[in-house]
């Protein structure tokens, strides 16, 4: 260090320096490159992910991606990223976590539970098909079924929730979908998933089974393991868990069905935002702990209310007094009680 710099930088001489990180830009600039160009394109390369990778996936907000070789466009589209509507790492991270919890072949995430439901129905149904829905049914689903499906030439029937024989009586030659909700919102009626699937198999040509399992969460009830074709969740509830994100999910064990709905989801543009996908994944990390505590609290409250002189009836599958208590214990494969009443 020169004597003239001793006063200015002398304090640095006794500091045990480590070698500085070598940062590289994704672009190469020469002396003629304008500041305008640098401001728009400057970007540091990611460190070697073979050496270390982030525990929490980074939020990938980019809508577009720079392709290194135009000849590899097709490969980028299939294995990498080219446009945020077609594929996004943040959304894939949340979807894959849900898929693993559900035990499926593939999962998709949506900007709301209703967008998952409507996209699914509009992709698997066509003019002339018939769908059987339960009552009670989530209000948004009910309104869509009553107000919108007839515009597409789709017939609907509504039967008592949880009543397999009621479903059986409404089956027609054109019945394409048996739609279930278990536990139902808000009475927590339980659907026997095994019997539901067997009924669908008995329909000539077969019917698809779609189940909204939001109130159970994929931690308490793994719907696909009962043979259901499509499991749907409003991730706004238990999966998100913090009342700060709206989202939905779809999961299936059928690879061809997954790819079909995924393609139509991309065409319709009904995709989740990367930031909300990040929040959904954050919620999934604590889902097991929360569901156990929810269940413990809900059971304690339900037992208290059942004994209260001012309460006529408690709708809670964890109570022996619930009409589907035995079915609830059979269907619920992760924990003994649901977290709602």
Features:
single chain, 341 residues, alpha/beta, seven-stranded mixed beta sheet, 37% helix, elongated
Shape type: elongated
Largest sheet features: 7 strands, mixed
Rg over CA atoms? 26 Å
Mean pLDDT: 89
Treating each run of at least 4 consecutive H or I residues as one helix, how many helices? 13
- Could you state the order of secondary-structure elements as H and E? HHHHEHEHEHEHEHEEHHHH
Low-confidence stretches: 333-337
Structural class: alpha/beta
State which percent range the strand residues make up: 5-15%
Structure description:
The chain is α/β, with parallel strands linked by helices and 341 residues long. The chain has 13 helices and 7 strands. The protein has a 7-stranded mixed beta sheet, sandwiched between helices. Helix 8 links the parallel strand 4 and strand 5. Helix 4 packs parallel to helix 11 and helix 5 crosses helix 10. The radius of gyration is 26 Å and the shape is elongated. The N and C termini lie far apart (74 Å).
């Amino acid at each position: 260090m020169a004597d003239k710099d001793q006063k200015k930088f002398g304090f640095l001489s006794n500091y045990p320096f480590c070698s500085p990180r070598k940062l590289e830009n994704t672009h190469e600039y020469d002396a003629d490159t304008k500041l305008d160009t640098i401001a728009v394109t400057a970007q540091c390369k990611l460190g070697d992910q073979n050496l270390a990778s982030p525990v929490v996936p980074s939020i990938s907000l980019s809508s577009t991606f720079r392709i290194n070789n135009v000849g590899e466009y097709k490969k980028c589209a299939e294995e990498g990223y080219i446009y945020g509507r077609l594929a996004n790492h943040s959304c894939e991270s949340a979807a894959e976590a849900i898929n693993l919890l559900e035990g499926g072949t593939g999962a998709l995430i949506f900007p709301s539970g209703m967008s998952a439901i409507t996209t699914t129905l509009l992709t698997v149904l066509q003019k002339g098909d018939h769908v059987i829905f339960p009552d009670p049914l989530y209000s948004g689903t009910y309104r869509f079924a009553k107000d919108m499906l007839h515009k597409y030439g789709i017939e609907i029937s509504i039967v008592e929730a949880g009543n397999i024989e009621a479903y059986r009586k409404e089956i027609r030659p054109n019945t394409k979908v048996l739609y279930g909700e278990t536990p139902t919102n808000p009475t927590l009626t339980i659907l026997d998933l095994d019997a539901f699937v067997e009924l669908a198999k008995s329909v000539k040509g077969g019917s698809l089974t779609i189940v909204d399992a939001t109130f159970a969460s994929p931690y308490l009830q793994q719907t696909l393991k009962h043979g259901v074709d499509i499991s749907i969740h409003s991730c706004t509830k238990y999966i998100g868990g913090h009342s700060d994100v709206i989202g939905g999910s779809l999961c299936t064990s059928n690879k061809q069905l997954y790819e079909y709905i995924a393609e139509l989801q991309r065409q319709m543009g009904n995709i989740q935002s990367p930031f909300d996908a990040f929040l959904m994944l954050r919620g999934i990390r604590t889902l097991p702990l929360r569901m156990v505590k929810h269940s413990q609290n809900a059971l304690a409250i339900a037992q208290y209310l059942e004994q209260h002189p001012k309460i006529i009836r408690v709708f809670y599958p964890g109570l022996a007094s619930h009409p589907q208590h035995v079915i609830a214990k059979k269907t619920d494969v992760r924990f003994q009680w649901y977290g709602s009443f």
